[in-house]
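Reopening this ticket.

The earlier resolution said the output was attached, but the attachment link was broken on my side. Pasting everything inline this time so it's all in one place.
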Amino acid sequence: MAYDALPMQRKSETTPQLSPPCFMPSHRATALLVPLVVAALGFALFLRYAIIQNTPIGLACEAGEESPTCTLRLVAIILFVGSWFGGTALVAAAIQLWRPNIVTFGIGLVAAAFGLVLYNTRLSALAVALLVLSLARARSVAR
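Inline output:
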């Protein structure tokens, strides 16, 4: 026999549910998001410590070397100087807080991982806080 926590409460089809279910990524989505965020974090650490802060690579790129490494370094520097990582994370987190879904949650997490490692810490930290708050929001109803 199943245990009923509130045996004296009336069960009615017209009684509204008191608390709507909160947004929570499914097990499949979590299994996809965790490696994605870990890979983004690893790539951001590689960019920062192996390419951006590496003195010989920096000197070669500043001297005018034309290589894919220098192009990647220049693009990463342009993106973090313009706060693109933190801004993208913040916009995705705001959309996630407004209308929770797994795509904006993933975009926010990946952009925040890049932003936290690549010098956009304030905006990215705010985005992470908004993403955590979005887990307390009601799940959006399918139409």
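Reporter confirms the inline version is readable. The chain has six helices and no strands. Residues 27-134 form one domain.
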